[in-house]
Every structure is written in C-alpha cells, then in structure tokens.
Write a structure and sequence with these properties.
The structure holds two protein chains of two kinds. Chain A is α/β, with parallel strands linked by helices. In chain A, 36% of the residues lie in helices and 21% in strands. Chain A has helices spanning 18-27, 73-80, 105-117, 125-128, 134-144, 149-162, 178-190, 208-220, 232-238, 256-261, 263-268; strands at 34-42, 48-57, 62-66, 88-93, 96-97, 118-121, 196-200, 224-229, 241-246, 249-255. The longest helix of chain A has 14 residues, at 149-162. In chain A, 47% of the residues are buried. In chain B, helix 3 runs parallel beside helix 11, helix 4 (50-67) runs parallel beside helix 7 and helix 6 packs antiparallel against helix 7. In chain B, a hairpin with a 2-residue loop joins strand 1 and strand 2 (105-108). Chain B contains eleven helices and two strands; from the N terminus they run H-H-H-H-H-H-E-E-H-H-H-H-H. Chain B is globular. Classes of the chains: A alpha/beta, B mainly alpha. The A-B interface holds A 78, 81, 83, 112, 115-116, 118-120, 122, 124, 126-128, 130-133, 136, 139-141, 143-145, 172, 174-178, 188-189, 192 and B 1-2, 5, 9-10, 139, 142, 159-160, 162-164, 166-167, 209, 212-213, 215-223, 227, 229.
Chain lengths: 291, 261
C-alpha cells in the first residue's frame, strides 16, 4: 500500500499538520465513520473477489474508491451494509461491527442499525426507486426504521430539500429524468440520516448538466462520503482523497490530485484520464468542516 | 430508460379515466367490495332466468353513465374477453344431447345454455372490473387491497408489477429497435427462434433487476413487510352509496330464484 506523508484526511485539506490532526482526534473521540480490516470474500461459486481490504475513513471525509471494472468495487460496497458477509476480516461503522451472518435477533438488530448508518445509493436509480411516488419512496427507509407521523413527513421533506427535489414529491419516479431520479435516490438514503453515504458510480449515464447538479448537491451535504467510480474528473472535483481497489485489495491511498498525476500507478490499474484533462491545473477539492 | 416516460406510460395510469363523479370519489376498498359482491350475486343467478341478466346489465350501464366513462373506452376494453368467447363458442358444438336446430345446425341445448351463462356472467364481470379500473387509480386500488387485508405479499407483487411494467416494456422496446437496426424483421415462424431468444434475454435481465431491487430494499431496512403509509378512510355514507349496486342486483337475483323454483 502506498501512502504519501502529506495526505490530509480531515477538514483542512492542506493546513492540518500531524499534530493538529492528533489534537483534533483527541477532542473528537468519535470512532472512524468506516473501518475495514482484512476484509476477504469469495462468492459461493468459488470466485474470490476481495483479498483482504484495509480502509479507514474518518468522519466528514469524502473519499473516492477508484478501480477498473471487475476490481471488486460493488462487492465491497455490499459488505459495508451487511448484505454480503466477509469470509474473513471485520467491517466497523462508527464503532459498530457488522455482525456475521446469523439468525440471532441481536445480530438482526445490529444489521438494521448498520443499514441505517450506511446509506448506499445504487448505480441504477430504477433499482432503487420502487414505490409509486417520490414521497413514498423517500419515506420507505425511515418508515422501516419505525419513524412515523409528523417526524416521517419532516424527514422526507428535509431530505428532498437537500437534493432540491421537494417540488417533485408527489410524482411517480418513472416520470422524472435520469438525473432527477438519481437525486431522489440520494434523498431516499439521506432520509435515513446515515453516518456515511456510499455512492456507486454516481455520475454514470448523466448528461453534463445533471452531472453538475448532482455534484453541487453532493458538495453541499455535510456527511462522510465514499464514492465508487471510474469517473476520474468527478473524483477530482468532489473527493480530496482517493483509494484504488485492484485485484481485490487496496493498492494505493493518497490525495486525489497526487494520485491522478501518477501516470505509472494509474496505468498499472487500468485507470485513464479523459482526453485533455489535466489534474495539475485544477484546484484541489475542499471538504467543509466536520459536523 | 430515457425518453420513455411520456404521459400515461404505465399500465395502471392508462386504465384510469380522470373524473370527479360519485364513483370516482368512493374509496377504493369500498368499490372493490361492492364489485365483488355484485359479481358473486351475478354468478349465483340461475342461468335460464335471462331477464335477470338484463337487469344486471342495466345496473352496470347506469354506473358507467354516472361515472361518465366514454362508451368507446368500455367497449374497446371489453376485447380482453375474446379468448373466453372462443371457449364458449365451442360448448354448443361439443356439448351433450338433446340437440336443437339453429339455422340448420344441430346444437347441444345444455351447451347453448352453458355458453350463454359464461358469456353473460363473464361480460358482466368484465364490465364491472373495467368500471372499477377506470374510476380508481391503480395505486389506490393497491392501497385498498392492503386495507382489505389481502396478504401483503400479493399486494407487494402487484405493486412491483405496476412500477416495473413500464421499465420492462421500455427494455423490450429497446431490444426490438436494436434487433431491427440490424436488419431483423419478424415475418414468420422462421424468426420465432430469435424472438424466443429475446424473450429469454428479457427474462434474465428482469430477473437480475429483481435481485438488484431486492438488495436496494434490504439496504434501506426492508424486513419483509411494506411500511404502511396511510390509506383513505371510508365513512358510512360511502358504504351505503357503494352498496346500491350489489343490493339492487341481489334483489334481482332473489327474484330470479323465486321464479325458477
């Protein structure tokens, strides 16, 4: 694993020296938003997708998970909220460990809580939006958590406001544009008030305007974020830190600009910058203060 | 799925005819119960009491008129009955003796009566359902079923069918366009193999989508039951209004039984 010394994974992208960070950590005793230790997984057919993934994401960070097709990115995402269970290793979300697969009632409660804490936005919004109206879809998650009445209405309203889709609350999802549907999918997850937002290829299939609108929405959210993508300009725009998953392990972990400028590393992992894109001439992305 | 979300693109909304009649305003579950009661009454009527079916038909026509559903809409939608009509047509030909002579053809008398029964009862049921579907948005129908304690799983399956019918048809349409863009034209049985393969591919895709939807549901805390997000409440007046149709039908049915015995 590669780790550069000047990586800054907290709120101040460049200023925070190691001592500042240590101080900040001591003031904030909260555990990391997400921590993976040695996570390995093989599908029932014997195909092994993950070979010991280690990753730690602090509260308030925005991290891009880069990797070529078939690197195990989606498999990894399904581990984060306990849908797939690691054959080895541990996944911890804000101090709560994803329990092993079991029928135990206590574990079931833990899995529910994990799924509340980790909000996964899937790649195809049609997979995620299945209720007859936008409002009901956004209410689905919190209602499953037992939220009812006025509080539920308020949650739905707030979540839709955050993605600028409140005006569409009573429309059926399939009457929205693709970009709007993706924003509703984000709202549906935000309504669960997650600890960390996990986005699977958020920019795929979006036209440039929808892409920018989604970026504006994501940038405005005060939340820890893990963005799975191979859209490198999008990672550069939104995430100060990036990691590369390749062959089922994290092979690099660095600030996004440094990583994108490392041609040799990028080429080795089948990651290519689009024609004419030069990360050196761009300002580094900034994360706002921790909530 | 871009470009395919036009007006009334999905089945549920295509069946609904917008309006503000008494029939439209009744809560979905009340209408559903009324329709069921009506259909049971019709089915329970002795087949040979022809006049009773005339009364039922008049009652339904009155409801359609009150709901202001265009006659054309009703007649066009009645075409769904055609496969059953074919079945009914066979009965007088294949039915048992005694035979009667109709236009020089010897037809089975019990067969004729049975065919009439299927046709009359079936048509009344179909028109009743068309009326319900035309005056109730599909979504409300589902909520109504939920309220009537129809097993959750059935309601969920129907709901997903409604939501994804348009996604799947759009996918089918894209596959058709892609086929034809490569010079394919279905002209006869020779092309059936390709069509069958497309259907297979569509099935696999839909199946995989089903799995992805399920994962997305699990991710948001789904545990097997849909959260109840509130339904329309019926007052006594609604029940009374809705009961008019089955009550009138019941009177005719009882009369028919009295006459026939």
């Amino acid at each position: 694993m590669m780790r550069s010394s000047d990586r800054s994974d907290l709120s101040q992208p460049n200023a925070a020296s190691r001592t500042d960070r240590a101080e900040l950590q001591s003031i904030l005793p909260t555990p990391a938003s997400l921590e993976l230790a040695g996570v390995a997984f093989a599908y029932p057919d014997g195909h092994q997708a993950l070979f010991g993934v280690d990753l730690r994401i602090e509260r308030g960070e925005r991290v891009a998970l880069l990797g070529p097709n078939g690197a195990g990115k989606t498999t990894l995402v399904l581990h984060l909220n306990g849908i797939l269970h690691a054959g080895a290793g541990v996944v911890t979300v804000a101090g709560l460990t994803v329990p092993p697969k079991s029928k135990d009632a206590k574990d079931a409660a833990a899995v529910r809580e994990i799924r509340r804490r980790v909000g996964v936005v899937f790649q195809d919004p049609d997979d995620q939006l299945f209720m007859p109206t936008v409002r009901e879809d956004v209410a689905f998650g919190p209602a499953n958590m037992g939220v009812v009445g006025d509080e539920l209405d308020q949650r739905v309203r707030t979540a839709l406001e955050r993605v600028d889709m409140l005006a569409f609350a009573d429309r059926p999802p399939h009457h929205l544009s693709y970009g709007q549907r993706r924003r509703v999918a984000v709202a549906a997850v935000l309504a669960m008030e997650p600890e960390i937002l996990v986005l699977d290829e958020p920019s795929s299939n979006l036209d440039p305007a929808s892409r920018r609108e989604l970026a504006d929405v994501l940038r405005s959210l005060d939340i820890t974020m893990l963005m799975v993508t191979h859209d490198l300009p999008y990672a550069m725009e939104l995430c100060p830190r990036s990691v590369i998953l390749s062959g089922g392990v994290i092979v690099a972990d660095d600030d996004t600009r440094t990583m994108l400028c490392n041609e040799e590393l990028m080429g080795r992992n089948r990651l290519e910058l689009p024609y004419g894109f030069d990360p050196q001439n761009l300002p580094a992305p900034v994360v706002r203060g921790i909530a | 799925m871009g470009g395919s979300h036009g007006h009334g693109a999905d089945q549920g909304e295509r069946l609904y005819v917008h309006g503000h009649s008494v029939v439209h305003r009744l809560p979905a579950h009340v209408k559903t119960v009324a329709l069921l009661a009506f259909v049971f009454t019709v089915v329970a009527t002795p087949t040979e009491q022809f006049w009773a079916f005339g009364v039922y038909a008049l009652l339904l026509i009155a409801v359609v008129a009150v709901a202001r559903i265009p006659v054309r809409t009703v007649t066009t939608r009645m075409l769904v009955e055609i496969p059953f009509v074919f079945f009914a047509v066979l009965m007088p030909i294949l039915g048992p003796d005694p035979r009667v002579d109709v236009l020089g053809v010897g037809l089975s008398q019990p067969g004729l009566l049975a065919a009439w029964g299927i046709m009359a009862k079936g048509t009344l049921g179909v028109v009743g359902s068309i009326t319900l579907a035309a005056t109730t948005p599909a979504r409300d129908l589902l909520l109504g079923l939920e309220r009537l304690r129809v097993p959750d799983l059935f309601v969920q399956i129907a709901g997903f069918m409604l939501r994804y019918s348009h996604v799947v048809t759009a996918e089918m349409e894209r596959m058709r366009i892609a086929r034809e863009s490569r010079g394919f034209h279905a002209t006869g049985p020779r092309q059936w193999k390709v069509l069958a393969q497309s259907a297979g591919a569509l099935f696999i895709r839909s199946y995989e989508r089903g799995e992805r939807v399920h994962l997305a549901m699990l991710s948001r805390g789904y545990t097997g039951t849909m959260p109840n997000l509130g339904t329309a409440v019926a007052v006594r007046r609604d029940w009374v209004v809705a009961a008019t149709l089955p009550a009138a039908a019941l009177v005719a049915c009882l009369l028919a039984w009295t006459v026939s015995s």
